Amino acid sequence: MNIQQIWRYPVKSMAGERVDAARVTEAGIEGDRGIQVRNKSGRTVTSRTHPQLFGFHATTSDSGEVLIDGRPWDSPKILEQVQRTAGPGARLVRDETQDRFDILPLLVATDGAIAAFGRDVRRLRPNIVVGGVAGLKERGWQGGQLLVGHGAESIVIGVHDLRGRCIMTTFDPDTQSHDPEVLRDIVKRFGGKLALNCEVIQGGVIKVDQEVRFVGAGTGSEY
Fold first, then answer.
1. What distance in Å separates the CA atoms of residue 48 and residue 54, rounded to the nearest whole number?
2. Which of 69, 123, 131, 150 is the most interior residue, by most CB within 10 Å?
3. How many CA atoms within 13 Å lie on the side-chain side of 93?
């Protein structure tokens, strides 16, 4: 198995960026979801209620600056556009605490499960896609660990449980058109759960094509 894809979402609920390498720590992928949209009451606004946020594309410049559609995230022009989408009084704020994650800092998917899903991987919003996984084998990984790389420097990712999916999967990542059948299909074929909630036990730099091994919970069995 190997690291097939790495995704970072510099602004929560906006379209993210696919990268070749990233540093991971106990707080997840460096720069992931470090900026959020808040409404005038201070509550975080997500694409569950404002799917047009998917229409913004957040990236990270070579200098580490977060850009939205090519502009600095804190520019007046971007704020104006965000307020048209999220409502008057909405603002963009930086928050790098653990509270920025809905569940755990990493979401890991596999190429086998994505193939079974049969739709654009971006609907699942994974951080890491592991390649070389047969079918739905990921569904037996709960409680185990993924080891990325070799030796003492291996990155260790703890696998907790399957991710319950929500309405965000029903929005097309390019057009934001709504297709309720997507979530109904996930419920029917996958029990409403797809991809894996994970934590970082030992961090480091992950890169596309790095080898990945799985160690089963309580068994020490590795493959």
1. 10
2. 123
3. 15
Name the token pair of 47: 């694409």
Question: How many H helices and E strands in the chain?
Answer: 3, 17
**55, 110: one domain:** no
71-72, strands of its sheet edge to edge: 58-60, 66-68, 71-72
The residue assigned the tokens 């009451």 is: 41
47, burial (CB in 10 Å: exposed 0-12, middle 13-18, buried 19+) = buried
Q: Is there a single domain that holds both residue 21 and residue 131?
A: yes
Q: Which residues pair with 197 in a beta bridge?
A: 107, 161
Name the residue with tokens 């086998």: 112
- Examine residue 223 and state whether it is found in any structural domain, yes or no: no
Residue of 92, 94, 74, 73 lying closest to 83 (CA atoms): 92
Q: Are residues 34 and 121 in the same domain?
A: no
Which pTM does this prediction carry?
0.93
Q: For 2-58, how does the pLDDT look when each residue is reduced to its tens digit (9 = 90+)?
A: 999 999 999 999 999 999 999 999 999 999 999 999 999 999 999 999 999 999 999
Sequence-distant (6+) residues with CB within 8 A of 12 are: 33, 35, 36, 37, 44, 46, 100
| 175 Cβ contact list (under 8 Å, min separation 6) | none
Q: Do 120 and 194 fall within a single domain? A: yes
Assess whether 201 and 128 both reside in one domain.
yes
Task: Domain count for the chain, please give it.
Answer: 2
How far are the Cα atoms of 20, 30, 112, 177 from residue 23, in angstroms, in the given order?
11, 6, 25, 33
Angle at 56 between CA 51 and CA 59, to 5 degrees: 135
